[in-house]
Structures are given as C-alpha cells and as structure tokens.
Amino acid sequence: MKTMPVLFNDAHKAHNPKTEFFNGKLIPYPESPERIAGILNHVSELKFLELIDKDETIDVKNLIDIHAEGMISYLETISKSSKTILSNEDDYYNTNHLQEKDGYLFPSVFPTRKIMNNILDSPSGFHGYYHFDNEGPIGEGTWTAILSSASLAFNASQIVKSGDSISAYALCRPPGHHAGTDFVGGFCYLNNAAIAANNMLELGKVAIIDIDYHHGNGTQDIFWENPNILFCSLHADPKFEYPYYSGFSGEKGGESAPNSNINVPLGKGCSGSEYLQSLENTLDQIKSFNPKSLVISVGFDAHEDDPLGLFKLSVEDFHTIGLLVEKMSLPTVFVYEGGYNLKMQGLLTEKLLRGFLGV
Ligand code: SP5
Ligand code: ZN
Predict the structure, then answer these.
(1) Ligand 1 centroid distance, CA of 308 (Å)
(2) 231: helix, coil or strand?
(3) 128-181: per-residue pLDDT in tens?
(4) What are phi and psi of 233, to 5 degrees?
(5) Which residue, 106, 173, 236, 297, could crosslink 12 as a Cys pair with Cβ 3.0–4.6 Å?
(6) What pairs with residue 261 in β-bridges?
(7) What Å distances lie between residue 176 and 145, 195, 298, 351, CA to CA?
(8) pLDDT tens across 341-350, in order?
(9) Which residue from 180, 170, 174 is spatially nearest to 295, judged by alpha carbons?
C-alpha cells in the first residue's frame, strides 16, 4: 500500500490567542491548537500515513529568500519581548499604537507605505508596519510556533526533493498563505508553502495550488516576479470575501513573470461540481507550464460546514480533489493552511489523502 509521511510537532501549542479584533469587534480566535489535535486524533489509526514527530527547526537563513530580514527579526523580537514591551518606559511609542489582550499584542495603525514609511525608532516601532490587518496577534510563544510551522514545511519538502518519498504532508500551524514578503495577517506569519516551493525549485519549475477558501495573497506576493513558480489559487471572490484587496482574475504576475499567477475567484455558495470543474481547468493550465513538482496549500474552509466559509463542498469533493491532484503524477508537498470546523479537519484530511494515494 502507498504510504505518505505526515510531519507534525507540538511546538505550535505555544501560540494560542483566544481572541482577535475583527470588524470592530473582539471575537473568538478560530485558528486554535485543537485544529491539529483533531487531525492527529483522527489519522493516527490510518495505516497509509506515517506520522513523524519532527522537532528539527530550520536555520533562519532559509527564510530570507522568502521574507524581508526586517520582518523576520521583528517577529522574533516582538514575540520574545511581548510580555514586557508595554511596560518598557524607554519605548516611547508602545502604548500609543499597541493593544494587548490575554498576552497577545495587536497593532492599531497600519501605515500605507508611500508616505507612512517611517520606521519608529523604538522596540515596538515595527508593530503595525508589518501587519496588513489585525489577525496576527503576537505573544511570547508565537515565534517558537511559527518557526516550527515553517520548519515542518521545509522538512517535508526535503523528503520529497531527496526522493525519499514522492509526497509528504506538513501539518503546519499557524498557517502561512496570507503572509507575504514583508507583511503578516490572516492568522499567518511565515509563508510555509512558499518556503516549501522555494526549496522544491532545485527539481525545476514548481506549481502551487492553493485550495484554501481564502485567496493566498501572501504566496502571490512572494512569487509575483518569479517565472519559475506558477501560483494558482481557487477561492472566494474578493468582491465579498477576505482578503478583499487581491485575488481577482486579472492578477496574472509581474513584469518579469507574466502568466505565472492564476486566480480563480468563485461565488458565494459555490457547489462541489463548479469547484471541481474550475480545478480541472486550472490543472490543465498547470500541465502546459510543465512543472517538476507541486505544492498544495490545503485549506478545508471551503467545506460546507466551515464556520468561516460560504462554499458548499462536501466531504466527497475533497476525495475527488485528491484524485485530481494525483493525476498530475508529480512529486507533491502538501502544506496545511486553513479550515476551522474542529470536528471535520481529521476526516477531510483522510478523504483528501485517500483520494491522492488511491487507498
Ligand atoms: C489561513 C486562513 O484561512 N485565514 C483566514 C483569515 C480570515 N479572516 C477573516 C475572519 C472573519 C471572521 N468572521 C467570522 C464570521 C462568522 N460567520
Ligand atoms: Zn482560509
């Protein structure tokens, strides 16, 4: 029977915000450690998955192809000082533009960078600057968790790149696809899928398929000018859904990489058959790009019972997604992104991977 290595690690539990500010309200934070717990519980009995507890963290230098060095050091510093920053009397700006809730820091000013390009000269001076929304709370365990999450993606790509396995799954948390070159948001800090894709380039051109319900604006940003990486995202139309400001079909890649970006915005209530038809069209376009490997940004928030999504995909549709991806016959790295119905994450993981592995 075909098996797949599934990499996980407990370090994500150190990042556990309880609340976030959204639409002017304090609401429960949906991106919780229970998401991973539910998957591990469910898949631990499945013989076709080889669960690997991987606690090897990667060197930060592996992140600099992907993220601005200033942002990486901001994330590490603000996380490690999150407990003391608001009481630091030398930090003139801290209490003016930071809020703290249950040990997590939130910015309140998001400078547009044309003229608001002044980095505040204080320890908290980068807060806001690197955030595009208020869905990136940072507490003392955040750095540990995000570096571990990025490491799982990198290590999964190492397994596939080396030929040890034709596919691997990184159970990343926090997710990554909203994190760009120099911005964080949408529960994402480091772009795990981008880190995996960048590593897979050694095999030749890479295609990324992002099936999370939300547009992968961060991954799009990172590879916008890279002609060797085709980024494809199927998602809720930004006309009505987060992240609103990108994900339109006219976004096709930068000047150095025309047609290296494919966005497929889909309407409210999108059905399984409409979704699968769009995925098949996208896979046909990927074939003409002739990639040597695939990275799948896996979100389960397109499922009909997801609390954040408005699509109507069934459990069976995720099985079919697995089958369609397998038909590409390419080395494939799966990276976990969103999906917020805690009861469904395990079953949806199983179905997707059964489809892919044909078991
Ligand atoms: C990785 C990922 O899936 N990030 C998603 C970020 C979504 N942010 C918008 C959250 C809006 C919460 N609204 C709750 C509506 C409940 N009906
Ligand atoms: Zn999502």
Answers:
(1) 5
(2) strand
(3) 899 999 999 999 999 999 999 999 999 999 999 999 999 999 999 999 999 999
(4) -130, 125
(5) 173
(6) 231
(7) 12, 10, 11, 22
(8) 999 999 999 9
(9) 170
